[in-house]
Amino acid sequence: MMFWYGDGMNGWGWFAMSAGMVLFWVLLITAVVLIFRTLDRAAGRPAQSDLARPEQLLGERLARGEIDEDEYRRRLNALRSGGT
Question: Quick one: what percent of the chain has pLDDT higher than 90?
Fold first, then answer.
């Protein structure tokens, strides 16, 4: 008696079992990668306020000479007052 014919597993059964195993490993690896990316992103970026970044960009433009001091102060006041 041959044991591999007695369990009723045909070609579709082997295909489903193989596809299920591949799907399991893909989902497991994807979950691990997403967890590590989330933890790395949370640990790697310091919290910044919404107002600090535009002021920093404005200061950088002044330092590069793209805008003069009067325009810098005018735009800085507009940023801090919430105007356009």
Answer: 40
